[in-house]
C-alpha cells in the first residue's frame, strides 16, 4: 500500500475508510438476512443460508483487513471520513429494507444484490488505482478480495434469478446452494 499511499495518503485512507464503512454495513446486512432466513420455514430460504454464512465471514475478514491497513498508514479506522460518511448515507435505504421491516426472501435478496453491486465497484476502483500507481502488493491484496466479492455477487444474482424463475414463470427450479 506504500507506493499507492505515496501520492496522497489522506485520500487513500479516505477510500479505505469508505470500503471499511461498507464492509461493516455488509456484516450487519448478512447477519440480519441469515437470522431472518433461519427463522423462516421456507425451504428456498434455508437452501441458500450456508453459502450466505461463508460470504458473511468474508465480509468480516475484509473489514478487519481494511482497519489494519488504515492503521498501518497512520489513520484511525474509528474515524468517519468524508467518503465513509457518504457510504453511511447511501446504505441507509438498504439497511432500512434488510435490518428493519422486511422478512420476505425476494426483498432480502434484492437488498443484498444492491449492496454487492456497489461493493464490487468499490473494490474494483481500489484495484484500478493500485494498478495505475504500480503498487503490486496492494494490487494483489485488492484483487484477492475483489474475487471474493465477485463470487458474492454471482451467488446473490443466481439466487435472485432462480427465485424469479419460480415466482414469475412458475418453474420448478432448485435454489442454488453454492456459487
Ligand atoms: Fe464486501
Ligand atoms: Fe460481498
Give a topology summary.
Blueprint: H1 2-5, H2 9-39, H3 43-72, H4 82-101, H5 105-133, H6 136-167
Helix pairs in contact: 2-3, 2-4, 2-5, 3-6, 4-5, 5-6
The structure holds fe (ii) ion (FE2) (2 copies).
Characterize the structure shown.
By secondary structure, this protein is mainly alpha-helical. The protein has a single domain (2-167), classed as Ferritin (Up-down Bundle). Helices cover 82% and strands 0% of the residues. The chain is built from six helices and no strands. It has helices at residues 2-5, 9-39, 43-72, 82-101, 105-133, 136-167. The longest helix is centred in the last third of the chain and has 32 residues, at 136-167. The protein is elongated and about 55 Å long. The model has no long low-confidence stretch (mean pLDDT 96). One fe (ii) ion binds next to helix 3, helix 5 and helix 6.
Terminus-to-terminus distance: 30 Å
**Hetero compounds:** fe (ii) ion
Rg over CA atoms, rounded to whole Å, is: 17 Å
Total of helices: 6
Q: Give the class from helix and strand content and strand pairing.
A: mainly alpha
Unreliable sequence segments: none
Instruction: Please count the beta strands (DSSP E, at least 2 residues each).
Output: 0
Content of β-strand: under 5%
SSE string, helices as H and strands as E = HHHHHH
Q: Share of helix among residues?
A: over 70%
Q: Might you state the CATH topology name?
A: Ferritin
Tell me what the CATH architecture is: Up-down Bundle
The largest pleated sheet is described as: none
The domain count comes to 1
Could you state the CATH homologous superfamily?
Ferritin, core subunit, four-helix bundle
Provide the residue-averaged pLDDT.
Answer: 96
Main CATH class: Mainly Alpha
